[in-house]
Amino acid sequence: MPRAQARVDLAAIEANVAGLRGRLTGDAALCAVVKADGYGHGAVPAARAALAGGASWLAVATAAEAEDLRGAGLDTRILVMGALCATELERAIGARADVAAWHPRFVESVAGRAPIHVKLDTGMGRLGTRDPDVADATVTAAGDGLAGLWTHFATADERDDRFFDEQLGRFRAWALPHRERRPGLKLHAANSAATLRDPAAHFDMVRCGVAIYGLDPFGVDPAAHGLRPALELRSYVAELKACEPGESAGYGRRFIASQRTCVATVPIGYGDGWRRALTNNGDVLIRGRRFPLAGTVSMDNLTVDVGPRPDVRRGDEVVLIGGALRAEEVARRIGTINYEVTTGLTARVPRVHHRDGEPPGEA
Ligand SMILES: *Cc1c(COP(=O)(O)O)cnc(C)c1O
User: Fold this and answer.
1) Which Pfam families match (predicted)?
2) Which residues, judged by CB distance below 6 Å to any ligand atom, belong to the binding site of ligand 1?
3) What 8-state DSSP symbol labels residue 185?
4) Which residue, 138, 147, 247, 312, is the most exposed by fewest CB within 10 angstroms?
5) Separation between Cα atoms, residue 47 and residue 166, nearest integer Å
6) Strands 317-321 and 231-236
7) How far is it, in rounded angstroms, from Cα 169 to Cα 322?
8) Residue 156 CA, closest ligand 1 atom number
9) Type and span of the H or E element at 93
10) Catalytic site includes residue 213
11) Which residues contact 22 (CB under 8 A, 6 or more apart)?
């Protein structure tokens, strides 16, 4: 039993993509977002599974991420969504990626060497230009190199929010007249939440990240959207000891037994991305039952109160994410989002890819 392991079901990613694709309006394409090592799932295997499920584009945040995909032999269109400094732009071009632009000067430095997606900032307040005239000038500068027009929503995951519709309106007003003149242009705006929330946001392509991994973009329940979580985080019971009243576990004695109990030590900690904020604040599954974390989560280990007469044994598997214990629950406990839970798993945790429990073969 390895000390900690993330098991990633590629069949789930494939099924999630196929399911999302089935909901798209018209013949909108699905671009699978595999930035940050596929939200912690492994970018290359996740990309292959997404393509098998019907994705036809990939998106990443950085030039280096595009290089990694090309290096693995993937030859799909890849959009680098992030800002690029001069050397990063050269690397993105070298990786035959599409790039984002929102100023004519940047388009000049691309000099026809990469397809360009002009970004209007309709309210995200991050990348892109807020000024439709600057966006138009960027479109003109791109000339035949123009491949797409795009934007990004700030509040697609907030159910009753009206700002989403404002952003959608601004994007339509700017982008649709351009596409009337150039029918081949790809318009894209929707992330996972927008894709699930409003077919009017699908345009020619959607950019889905979190949902393809079976995580709920609304942070509640992936099953409500027909999504299957792809990642399970597992470790094992490395040590098991009786704890008399007054005895403690972990740094700072933040768990002190009030009655006789047993404490299991599980060799995974914040060095693996299992956050210290989960101290005395979370459950794990052992033999299918929930037990509470007891004491400080340290860098390499955590401790679990398994009760006075446990049937738990040394060597038993411990599930930290999986089954009834979803990444959404872990996120809620520490005031973050499911994205950060899986993306935060560190390189020390081996990713083991499988398909429905079987070796993945040549996916
Ligand atoms: C990360 C990202 C996405 C994907 O968002 P999800 O919520 O994971 O679907 C789409 N577009 C942009 C610009 C992004 O940065």
Assistant:
1) Ala_racemase_C, Ala_racemase_N
2) 33, 35, 81, 152, 191-193, 207-211, 217
3) P
4) 247
5) 32
6) antiparallel
7) 39
8) 7
9) helix 86-94
10) no
11) none
